[in-house]
């Protein structure tokens, strides 16, 4: 993230040294081939292990519906506090709760929470909570059932994709992204949009098709070890989506969004990390596109801080004076869009190659849907490499902001004079963590892709052959991640 | 080879001398290896007119004592991020930023001026781990 809000959002990482880059790249490639070699012999046993999702149920105080209500209250209170702080508080980014809470605590925090725990966002989403409470409390209209418009099937999740690209633009390019009041109005605008959408299309339909964050955190949480969902068949109690549930029970319970009257039926299950990414029953073409777009924006975030991008930006800046004062924003926007389109094009090409390599036993469309989730571990690894020190260093601002969220000079908890320790994690720790994360993410991705291939094709050799384009893509994607963290950060 | 000491002392004493020598050698090696933190001095010149030069990289090692001498032809404010050290620089006076580089990382040194345009950092302080 760039430093417009002077000082806010800076990353102080040292570039990964060449030696570690080489070690990381070598490990990733070697392990990839090792996995292929094992997979050739594996066949049925791999299949069986993957099927046996260790489903240990978690039934303790944390999973009780009361805790959930408390968590929702906390989330809603935080939302209100952030908006209020943004509007009435000190507009210096580092003195106001809003920028830190949104970009660090919420965006990075929930990304990590989703990837390494589970879909916690689906439980505490404050907008969904407020909407639901209002629906229960406000008097019912005369008609026995409020008519909602059915979500047009052809729309898929394209609105969510559009909104997510807008969000990425706001995060990376928008000049107001560290200005508290602008953020607050943005949140208000998003709230209005969300509640209107929920009102028109129904709570669940909106969240599963148009809410970019429910989808993004949902995708990340498929990697997580805790599977949070509503039991199949329970959704019949959900009055709102009853019709939908009858025809499409998988989708309704998978996302865990229809929960009216079903609070006691939530199930938390433990599973090996990454196994959730094998569940491709409900992948549609638009959801596939969403995943690819999400990965591309995460990568673009890192790419924007590299000297290569800076040279491109400078060259375009000089070459296009007709664009006027907002040249940089336009160049940035173009860069973001080119990245998205390029990722989609490359992935489509790889899917076509997979279909071809499988002797056309699988269409390229089916291939793209089956394998897209296996790229997620590489993105998660990159999120760790890129954001961990940022989260730990800049996140310390929250300690100070907890005592003085508005920048008025308060000291509610006594921590208002806390000075963040920039040495809390050293460069070596960050290098080694990043390297291990990236290699492990790569290994996970390659392994999962092989499991998917072995499931789809009976012949292990055919499965391996079909995987070669994917292997090349994953190695390229991992190399790109390594390259980005080996670049000196330039603003 | 028979050393002079060995000619006049018994095997037990020879061992004691060897042990002591080894200890001293070891201590010396450790001292050299963990090279003591140095004083590093850098000079930064700010020219308000003229093309924006590529940011310098000031490379130091962790725990070095760093002195950055800044000079400018116009009054500016210089800010070292991370360490959060700010200083006003006036023309014809060399201002020194002194600190111990305790934290590793790559920290931008920026100029605050009246115009809020896109400012490239003046320099980057890179503190490398030992």
Account of the 3D structure:
- With 491 residues, chain A is mainly α.
- Chain A has 2 domains: 1-55 and 273-491, no CATH class; 58-144 and 175-270, no CATH class.
- Chain A is built from 20 helices and 3 strands.
- Chain A has a 3-stranded antiparallel sheet with strand order 1-3-2, with no helix packed on it.
- Residues 1-5 and 232-263 of chain A have low confidence and may be disordered.
- Chain B has 130 residues and is of the alpha/beta class.
- Chain B has 2 domains: 4-33, no CATH class; 39-128, Immunoglobulin-like (Sandwich), CATH 2.60.40.420.
- Chain B is built from 2 helices and 8 strands; from the N terminus they run H-H-E-E-E-E-E-E-E-E.
- In chain B, strands 2-8-7-4-5 form a 5-stranded mixed sheet, with no helix packed on it.
- Chain B is rod-shaped.
Tally of helical segments of chain A = 20
Separate helix tally of chain B: 2
**Name of the CATH architecture of the largest domain in chain B:** Sandwich
Query: Uncertain regions of chain A: pLDDT < 50 for 5+ in a row?
Result: 1-5, 232-263
Q: Give the number of DSSP strands of chain A.
A: 3
For the largest sheet of chain B, list the strands in their spatial order: 2-8-7-4-5
Large-scale geometry of chain B: rod-shaped
**Biggest interface, and residues per chain?**
A-B, 19 and 23 residues
Task: Give the SSE map.
The complex is a heterodimer of chains A (491) and B (130).
Chain A (H helix, E strand, L loop, with lengths): L17 H25 L1 H8 L4 E3 L6 H24 L8 H20 L4 H4 L1 H12 L20 H15 L7 H22 L1 H7 L2 H10 L4 E5 L11 H6 L1 H6 L11 E5 L14 H19 L3 H13 L7 H31 L6 H8 L4 H19 L2 H7 L23 H30 L3 H26 L6
Antiparallel strand pairs in A: 1-3, 2-3
Helix pairs in contact in A: 1-19, 1-20, 3-4, 3-6, 3-8, 4-10, 4-17, 4-18, 7-10, 7-13, 7-15, 8-9, 13-15, 13-17, 15-16, 15-20, 17-19, 17-20, 19-20
Chain B lengths: L3 H5 L2 H23 L5 E8 L9 E6 L3 E8 L3 E5 L4 E5 L5 E6 L4 E8 L10 E6 L2
Parallel strand pairs in B: 1-3, 2-8
Antiparallel strand pairs in B: 3-6, 4-5, 4-7, 7-8
